[in-house]
């Protein structure tokens, strides 16, 4: 789905940055095709570490991850991967390049972590692949709603029915959700499942 909204991120395929002194490929939920393209692009840089959610590392084409790195780091889920990535970023050296491939919530979580540890934005390359599910920020109570697949969602924080806007906040790593029936209480637009 494309949008004329200027806040909506535009992604380019991952490509190796030869100026880096150390390279990390971090992936979760990417399609086999996108992961294979990234493997080819990143095969030109060394040293390279691979960080992957176990499900990705076990799927078809996982041998390509082993071709990139002798011992890919495998994690049970994204939470475990991000928890391990945080202290590694804290100790990262100048010259690191991070390549994140996966769902928007995942790749922007990686980018947020890097920003927290003062890794330059141009050193973190992100590319969306896989699920279109969104992380939605409630502008009313500030709750983050994960894995949203439709244009309407009941906020987990305040219970309001939120309309999922196409406005993306890089700072919050989320799309904005506004009360859908603010002007006419009880009148909600038709729910559409468009972010699968």
UniProtKB/TrEMBL annotation:
InterPro entries: DmmA-like_C, DmmA-like_N. This is Uncharacterized protein. Pfam families: DmmA-like_C, DmmA-like_N. It comes from Paraburkholderia solitsugae. Keywords: 2Fe-2S, Flavoprotein, Iron, Iron-sulfur, Metal-binding, Oxidoreductase. It comes from the Bacteria. NCBIfam families: mono_DmmA_fam. Residues 135-178 form the Dimethylamine monooxygenase subunit DmmA-like C-terminal domain. Residues 6-121 form the Dimethylamine monooxygenase subunit DmmA-like N-terminal domain.
